[in-house]
Amino acid sequence: xxxxxxxxxxxxxxxxxxxxxxxxxxxxxxxxxxxxxxxxxxxxxxxxxxxxxxxxxxxxxxxxxxxxxxxxxxxxxxxxxxxxxxxxxxxxxxxxxxxxxxxxxxxxxxxxxxxxxxxxxxxxxxxxxxxxxxxxxxxx
Length: 140
Description:
- This is Cyclic nucleotide-binding domain-containing protein.
- InterPro entries: CNG_cation_channel (IPR050866), cNMP-bd_dom (IPR000595), cNMP-bd_dom_sf (IPR018490), RmlC-like_jellyroll (IPR014710).
- By secondary structure, the chain is α+β, with helices and mostly antiparallel strands.
- The protein has five helices and eight strands; from the N terminus they run E-E-E-E-E-E-H-E-E-H-H-H-H.
- Helix 2 packs across helix 3 (89-120).
- The protein has one domain (2-134): Jelly Rolls.
- 40% of the residues lie in helices and 26% in strands.
- The chain starts with a strand and ends with a helix.
- The protein has helices at 52-57, 78-87, 89-120, 126-129, 133-136, and strands at 2-6, 11-13, 21-27, 30-33, 40-44, 49-50, 64-67, 71-77.
- The strands form two sheets. A four-stranded antiparallel β-sheet has the order 1-8-3-6.
- The relative contact order is 0.21.
């Protein structure tokens, strides 16, 4: 695990990147935004984590995450996360439960996007067919 400091508007996660770590907000607030940074879908405040679905389910990042203000973030690699979960069954249960809920939400978004792409006649990947197909369908 390592600690990183971010300034306002710094990218922490970029949509479509490969997932190799989970993030825990120690100080500050981050925001999940549209691909053009025009819309904020929701904010993640201190003592909350994100990036868990990507690292545990090995799927690419589905959203852009920026620092809203000065932030201090703990970054846990996939290996570090597994160690933490092995050492603390309670932590593993809490992370696992929330991650499973988020993954189900991710799958629903993907399914909705695929259905819309079919209706729109798109034959490429979701990222090739609409300006922001993943985040347009985001429902908190």
